[in-house]
Design brief:
Number of helices: 8
Structural class: mainly alpha
Oligomer: single chain
Helix content: over 70%
Shape: globular
Largest sheet: none
Length: 213
């Protein structure tokens, strides 16, 4: 990890992109990606703001992620808690200013979804470029990729499937039947597409970031 001004800015912007991604999907009528649908069920069902919910879930996911990767637990395990709080704060802030397209036509809803996919793939590659600690759920997905001796993108795909199971379980617990547990077209599209997009954009994003002085 090189704590240069360049890397710190890339890292913060990449994390902010993840917050933008979540907010865009929240503002559609297409549902959410599986992890965010899981978070939304908790956010509404408990209820608990994202700035508190994100670090709480991180406390559960991080030890699992470290165990999968056989990583030694150090004080760095606390860093993703700060990261999760930061991303949650971005989501809470953007929810107040980003307009909803849920009642508009399919074009605008798909535009938001497409934008969220693109922004998420770019943001995650920006974060991994810096070799700083990942947000908790992405640390878990990265660990899954390591466990199966494959890429981060494939680990993300498996992680999305795991999150879908958790979403259904907690949707049933909180009785979010009318909302279909916040699962929709976006859940399937995002779950299938995000992993390959991360791998697809990786080389291009890294080259652009390397060129930045």
């Amino acid at each position: 990890m090189k704590f240069t001004f360049k890397n710190i800015m890339i890292y913060l912007i990449g994390l902010a992109f993840l917050g933008v991604c979540v907010t865009l999907m929240l503002k559609t009528n297409l549902g959410m990606d599986a992890w965010d649908a899981f978070y939304r069920n908790l956010n509404i069902g408990i209820p608990l703001a994202y700035k508190y919910l994100n670090p709480l879930i991180a406390l559960i996911l991080l030890p699992i992620a470290y165990a999968i990767q056989k990583k030694k637990i150090t004080l760095w395990i606390l860093f993703p808690l700060v990261v999760s709080t930061y991303v949650g704060w971005i989501i809470d802030l953007l929810e107040l200013v980003v307009p909803s397209v849920a009642t508009m036509g399919l074009f605008w809803n798909l535009l938001y979804l497409g934008g969220s996919l693109f922004i998420c793939a770019i943001g995650l590659n920006m974060v991994t470029y810096c070799h700083f600690p990942l947000p908790a759920l992405d640390e878990l997905c990265y660990g899954i990729g390591v466990l199966i001796h494959s890429t981060y993108g494939r680990g993300k795909l498996i992680g999305e499937m795991l999150a879908l199971v958790l979403t259904v379980i907690f949707g049933i617990i909180f009785g979010h039947y009318e909302q279909w547990f916040y699962i929709g077209a976006a859940t399937i599209i995002f779950g299938v597409a995000i992993g390959p997009l991360i791998d697809l954009f990786k080389n291009s994003v890294y080259k652009i970031l390397e060129a930045i002085k």
